[in-house]
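Moderator note: this is an archived Q&A kept for reference. The question asked for a predicted structure of one protein chain; the sequence and the answer are reproduced below.
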Amino acid sequence: MPAGFRPEAMLVVYGLAEATLAVTFPELGTRPVVDWVDRAALTGDRRARPVAAGAPGARGVVALGSPVKGLDVRIADPDDCRPLGERSLGEVQVRGRSVTTGYLGATVQPFSADGWLRTGDLGYFAGGQLYVTGRSKEMLIVRGGNFYPEDIEAAARTDPGVHRRRCVAFVSDDDGDGIIVLVAESLVDSGVERDELTGRLRERVKAVTGLDRLRVVLVGPHAIPRTSSGKLQRIASRTAFT
C-alpha cells in the first residue's frame, strides 16, 4: 500500500458500549473481506444478494468477523424479532454475560421478549461473519423508496469539492412531500462554483442510487455537528439545517 500499512494489520470489528465493547472480531492476521451485494435487493427484498464488484448497483459491505467468546449474535426481523437466516437483512441482536441488563432510569428497555439486546443496527450473516449495513432509525424513506444515508454520502464524498469528505444525508419534510437533503462541507465560496458543485453532487448521487430528487446544502468547514469522538451526526444535522 502507498502508506506502507499492511492490510492484515487492520481489523474491522463490531462493538457496543452496551456489550462492554467487543462483539465480533475477524481472525488475527487476515485481510479485510468485502462482500459485494445488490443495493436494490438489500433495500427492497432485504436480502444480501451477491454480485460482482463492478456490477451496476453493487454495494461493498465489509465483514466484521464472528462473535467473540461468551456472546451470541443473531439477525432478527425488526418488527417481531423472529430469527432470520443466512443473507437475510434484519436487526443485529446480542446476548451474553457482558451485555448490559438495561439503561438506568429508562422506562422502555431495548430488549426482545426472549432477552436479546436490540441494537438498532441493520445487518446480515454470511459465511459465519457479521456484516452491518446501517442504522434502522437513519434509513431514508421517501415516496415508498428506501435509501441508506451511507450510500448517498459515499457517492458525494468522491467529489474533491467536499471538504475532507464531510457530508451527511437525511430526510426533510419541510415541503410536505419529503425530500432527501445532503449537507456537505466545502471551501467553495463563489456562486458559480457552488452551483457547479451542487450539480455534480446531484449527478454523483443519482448515478449510484438512482435518486432523482436531492436538496444540496453547502456549509463551511466544521459546520456539521459531531460527537465527542468526531462522528458526524445525521439527526442533529437535520435539526440544525432544516
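Archived answer notes: The CA atoms of residues 175 and 242 lie 11 Å apart.
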